[in-house]
């Protein structure tokens, strides 16, 4: 298996690029930003998904280089968007145990000239649990500089609620497994309702992921969910195909 060597070559040739999926304000139906999602297109035209190559990059010691390259690329793209639009970027759990991560990210924002307040970093609960002390240092560096932090895949980890009282997140992203089943499952509907109430109570913005159906969108709007994301609102697309004029595609 040559994945590691191929990955090394792909990074050298900058063949792994960010695609962007719109984040939509559910009250105004306007795009407020994009989440960057890494895509590796191989020679056959097929894509290797990030779930496959990010772990390889981590094991091969290539994650720092890959992340720096992707973030620099995404920040450069974001510079050409209207200045209200935010760039949301994923960090994998292992990265938050690198205490220089925050400073490296800030260096890239500075080099590119993208203001920190336009950047949001998505972290998961497991990332924080792994090495809480280092995660705190990294998040503090970033938050102090004005970067926003989103708690991704909310509801699927182990100690969501303790994380919420220990850290000041700007945003909570409800995992798409809740959205996909909530209409057919009355309890799931109540869970989503409770998460939205939690967001109101904590003053944290709530995003619902994985919206695929009109009925799901409608229900989330009725419940007062702030932001939505999902194939119904827009699929991940290459930078050149983005409609950054705030107009939601649907
Ligand atoms: O489209 P989707 O297959 O893009 O993403 C699958 C998983 O990979 C998600 O958990 C997502 O957060 C993660 N992911 C996507 N892009 C990146 C990236 O640039 N860095 C990291 N660490 N994870 C990413
Ligand atoms: O872990 P994270 O939330 O960063 O990953 C987002 C993942 O969800 C990516 O793989 C992205 O491509 C995928 N995704 C985005 N919108 C939808 C959707 O509406 N339905 C499904 N099934 N996946 C989605
Ligand atoms: Mn994410
Ligand atoms: Na998520």
From TrEMBL:
Tell me the superkingdom of the source.
Answer: Bacteria
Q: Can you give the residue ranges of the EAL domain?
A: 1-250
**Native source organism of the sequence:** Rhizobium ruizarguesonis
Q: What is this protein called?
A: EAL domain-containing protein
């Amino acid at each position: 298996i040559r994945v590691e060597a191929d990955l090394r070559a792909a990074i050298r040739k900058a063949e792994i690029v960010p695609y962007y999926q719109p984040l939509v304000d559910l009250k105004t139906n306007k795009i407020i930003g994009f989440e960057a999602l890494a895509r590796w297109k191989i020679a056959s035209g097929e894509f290797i998904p990030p779930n496959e190559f990010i772990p390889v990059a981590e094991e091969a010691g290539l994650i720092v280089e890959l992340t720096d390259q992707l973030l620099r690329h995404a920040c450069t793209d974001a510079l050409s968007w209207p200045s209200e639009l935010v760039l949301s970027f994923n960090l994998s759990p292992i990265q938050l145990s690198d205490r220089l991560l925050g400073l490296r990210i800030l260096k890239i924002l500075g080099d590119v000239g993208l203001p920190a307040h336009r950047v949001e970093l998505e972290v998961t609960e497991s990332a924080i649990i792994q090495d809480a002390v280092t995660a705190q240092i990294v998040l503090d560096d970033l938050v102090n500089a004005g970067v926003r932090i989103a708690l991704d895949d909310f509801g699927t980890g182990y100690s969501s609620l303790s994380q919420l009282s220990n850290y000041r997140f700007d945003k909570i992203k409800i995992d798409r497994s809740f959205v996909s089943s909530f209409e057919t499952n009355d309890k799931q509907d109540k869970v989503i309702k409770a998460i939205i109430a939690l967001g109101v109570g904590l003053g944290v913005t709530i995003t619902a992921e994985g919206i695929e159906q009109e009925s799901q969108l409608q229900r989330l709007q009725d419940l007062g969910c702030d932001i939505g994301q999902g194939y119904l609102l827009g699929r991940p697309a290459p930078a050149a195909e983005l409609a950054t004029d705030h107009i939601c595609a649907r």
